[in-house]
């Protein structure tokens, strides 16, 4: 179950039944090429088509403040997320945490072994849809101190309507579905393999901000 607080004070609970991770979803060919290039530097092959959509297990959607990992080469990605409820569509901010070592063997595999961390706050998508492109997405990593690693506007990514149409066409637009937007390129020279991540979705029209933040903790080495 995910639980969201809305600006009017209402709380909405959603039982997650499906999680969809969009990938390589930049609206600009240059943005997509930049993201493919940064992943290629990590040894991750380019996809056959873009944008992509990777279904992952529903239990990977979480609002936990801690992500447990098995090695030091995992990292997050700031994204917006749509949450389909029984009578509404919510918009929130999230981080698609990913195993970068496993990503070299398969993007879908790497997304299946790490969680999607969502904010505890959300907005009704219908109330903000018209100004979505002006909203900003920003991420920071903590390596001793907080450093900005991603920044852009929602106009840099495929719009929510694109993914809503994809979900409708594939019978995926059902209550309990969480759709992650895909992400922005990371700043060069910033270590993404950090001990904490923070992502924000900001609405310059209202000054409101949604935040998702979590610590990354490495598990003990196996006894084997």
For this structure, the CATH topology is Fumarylacetoacetate hydrolase, domain 2
Distance between the termini: 35 Å
- Low-pLDDT runs of 5+ residues are none
- What is the number of E strands? 17
Order of helices and strands: EEEHEEEEEEEHHEEHEEHEEE
Mean pLDDT: 93
* CATH class assignment: Alpha Beta
Major β-sheet profile: 8 strands, mixed
CATH 2nd-level architecture: Alpha-Beta Complex
User: How many domain modules?
Assistant: 1
Classified in CATH, the superfamily is Fumarylacetoacetase-like, C-terminal domain
Write down the overall geometry.
globular
Number of helices: 5
Estimate percent helicity: 10-25%
Q: Would you mind describing this structure in some detail?
A:
Pfam families: DUF2848. InterPro entries: DUF2848, Fumarylacetoacetase_C_sf. GO terms for molecular function: catalytic activity. With 224 residues, the protein is α+β, with helices and mostly antiparallel strands. It has a single domain (2-218), classed as Fumarylacetoacetase-like, C-terminal domain (Fumarylacetoacetate hydrolase, domain 2, Alpha-Beta Complex). It has helices at 29-40, 100-103, 107-112, 125-128, 160-169, and strands at 2-5, 11-14, 18-23, 52-56, 61-62, 66-69, 74-75, 78-84, 89-96, 98-99, 116-118, 123-124, 136-143, 145-153, 177-180, 196-203, 208-218. The strands form four sheets. Strands 3, 4, 5, 8, 9, 11, 12 and 15 form an eight-stranded mixed beta sheet that branches. A five-stranded mixed beta sheet has the order 6-17-16-13-14, with no helix packed on it. A two-stranded antiparallel ribbon has the order 1-2.
